[in-house]
Amino acid sequence: MKNSLTEGSILKSLLTLMLPIMFVNLLQTAYQLIDTFWVGRLGTNAVAAVSIGFPIIFLIIYLGGGLAMAGTILVAQYKGKSDKNAINHITAQTLLLVFTVSIVLSAIGYLLSPFLIKLMGAEQDVFSSAVSYMKISFIGTVFVFTYMVFQSLMRGVGDVKTPMYIVFGTVLLNLGLDPLFIFGYGVVPAYGVAGAAVATIFTQGIAGVIGITLLIRGKHQIQLHLHDLKPDINLIKKMFKIGVPASIEQSTRALGMVIMTFLVASFGTITLAAYGIGSRILSFIIIPALGLSMATSTIVGQNIGAGKIDRAEKTTKLSSFLGFVGLSLIGIIIFIFAEQISAIFIPGEIETIKSSALFIKMMALTFGFIGIQMSLNGAFRGSGNTMISMTLSIVSLWVLRFPLAYLLSMHGGFAEVGIWIAFPIANVVAAIIAIIWFAKGTWKQKKIMDEDKLERGVIDESIIEEGVD
């Protein structure tokens, strides 16, 4: 069977995967904006109630996201090998594993919601609403995880359009359900802040059911069989070894954002506002870089599975080049119009605009290095080397960015500018480290998968060796 990701134009393959992934990320950003918009109609306290629980909820989602990524990597490699039985078996085991983990995390999150909200420092007038929102969100964790697995598995076989259509539908549905559940209408009661969580559960539940239905029907390169749901302990262990580093990577990023915010807040409201604006700009820059990273991961995984190591390497180099050039061009434009961009977010506040523009300018000319790092991380993940990707992310944040920001701002005499300086330095140094690691070539030194066929759904232990020992 012809596989377009292991043959033909590499550039076409990258763009074919990257663009729909970017669109999905934009849609998911829109999902959050819609929630914030409708909850905002209830007032400041309502927005605060939703906002205070976001970091914790996303931290839990990131923990499960790494295990789903393990499914992506394994499916991609067996897709490259054209082993449909293995793909179907991995699909069932990924669903079984992530579903089980989601139940456990959901129960823990639900029970600890009051404690976690109190720990976050919620004031009394938002405490009750925040707890209700978080509890309902945790009830729906299983639906979020189910669809996340479906999306990850589809990406593994190179199908990024089907998940995109589903996400687009859920965003449109959420647009109508948010006001319905928040304010109520007819027989539907007004749930207030909790209504946003109810709407999310409803839409994610539908997305999850659609995803499972498509897997059972087997018309999108993967078919879910009941007999494959019997726990395969060896494979589950392998998935944990691949997935846990990815979970740690994503979780430490989320935690790092919280810690950095504490440091920024110590310099006052203007600095906090300037950082908020710069962070939003950075979050938009990450969208194309993330799309390129995920596309690279899928193509590299499939080509390694097909034994085409040279093509995997060429894909990574092209992806890194595109990431550097594309994000550098965007960075130059943002550098030139930094003050005008800042003024859009907070018009008339001259001092804040000046501070945020300085932060944006200092980051902008190093955006290309973010593109390099994320492309290389995508290659490392695709080859099964999630440990390398995790290490690079931890080094970037905890060894470079945060320590530099703290030392320069608190002890270097730079004040808040020291925080701004840390970002471009960390971007450049982290990219150089990633390039050196890639050039060593250890990421592609792995055992080629054995030719043994699946026997009652048991996969040989030699699926992936590098990066999981």
Distance between the termini: 33 Å
Oligomeric nature of the chains: single chain
Q: What is the string of SSEs from the N terminus onward?
A: HHHHHHHHHHHHHHH
- What's the overall geometry? globular
Helix count equals: 15
Derived from helix and strand composition plus strand pairing, the structural class reads: mainly alpha
Instruction: Give the overall pLDDT as a whole number.
Output: 86
> What profile does the largest beta sheet have?
none
How are the elements arranged and paired?
Blueprint: H1 10-40, H2 44-80, H3 84-119, H4 124-139, H5 141-156, H6 161-183, H7 194-217, H8 233-265, H9 269-305, H10 309-336, H11 338-345, H12 350-364, H13 367-382, H14 386-411, H15 416-440
Short description:
The protein is an all-alpha fold and 469 residues long.
Describe the structure.
79% of the residues lie in helices and 0% in strands. The protein has 469 residues and is an all-alpha fold.
Brief descriptors of the model:
single chain; mainly alpha; 15 helices
